[in-house]
User: Fold these one by one.
Assistant:
Number 1:
Amino acid sequence: MKQTILLTGGAGFIGSHVVRLFVNKYPEIHIVNLDNLTYAGNLENLTDIDSKSNYTFIKGDIVDKEFIDKLFKQYNFDGVIHLAAESHVDRSITNPLAFVETNILGTVNLLNAARHSWSDNMEGKRFYHISTDEVYGTLGETGLFTEETPYDPRSPYSASKASSDHLVRAYYHTYDLPVVISNCSNNYGSHQFPEKLIPLCINNIKHN
Ligand SMILES: NC(=O)c1ccc[n+]([C@@H]2O[C@H](COP(=O)([O-])OP(=O)(O)OC[C@H]3O[C@@H](n4cnc5c(N)ncnc54)[C@H](O)[C@@H]3O)[C@@H](O)[C@H]2O)c1
């Protein structure tokens, strides 16, 4: 394999689609899918690719610093695509701490491991952090956000994602870590956990 990429949260909704895309489209790239299989993670999302030679699944927690450090030493990753997160706003209102742990501490553990692993040569390396437009707060009269919109998170979920974005940016400015952040709007589609609005409505309609 020419490269090894760590993808976190690949058993979740968006992650499972990204894993499938990469594994099928780039047979020369080894994709290591790290997921803790919380309530939101489901390996049945990936049964069609689980025997591919360029795919490895590892069950593990991004909050576990020692485990993450060992994983980076073992695989010598060329890149990170970081999707693992606690992602449901309503759950963040009932249990904010889980969001602080996974979304902030987990992200810092990955940033630190990447920084140490790539300290000799950052050339060609990339840490891609998947964030959300919710860091910008509530839509104003313009009805849109841009990358220039000031951060104004309104829930523990969006505050934890905003915090992780700031840390990713800080690792770029402080350590020259090659990072990319995207702040996409809501996604919907197959394999989305039925707590989210569209699958919840469809599920309720199906069950009257
Ligand atoms: N779904 C959306 O509309 C949307 C919009 C914008 C941004 N995002 C972001 O995209 C990413 C993926 O979102 P999603 O909707 O697929 O989420 P999801 O909840 O469906 O999946 C999250 C995955 O992360 C895993 N995970 C959670 N905690 C973990 C931990 N401590 N260690 C390892 N794995 C862990 C879960 O098991 C699950 O498989 C998240 O970072 C989210 O903030 C999502």
Number 2:
Amino acid sequence: MADFDYEELLDRARSNIPEEISNRARWSLPSPQIMIEGSNTIFRNFIEVVNHMDRDENHVYQFLLNELGTSGSRDGPRARFKGRIPPKRLKKTIVNYVNTYVKCTQCGAPDTHFIKEDRTTLLKCQACGATRPVKL
Ligand SMILES: [Zn+2]
């Protein structure tokens, strides 16, 4: 075990994934444009980032409000949060959303969608077919 370093493990993991899928796994979101305006925080390209995730904008917005423990309002393409939220913290919260509701934990691909099975909602990966339960 001690012979493997982290990079080596990553390479080994990648080499097991077909080329097309590993390209999609390198998917990234547009950089969030965040600015502080008085005592509010403005996420200027909220809709652009959400469109990239292919998720419901209200779901993303509610998640951010809950995680940040604040309230706010939506304003066209922008989202507004009460209080001065450090951009770093907001970015981390976006990453949490992606890890929880977008990324496949098996192959890392973002090509996923929700499916309903009985009373559970599953996140299904279109790239590798893996499913995992999510709490909406
Ligand atoms: Zn997958």
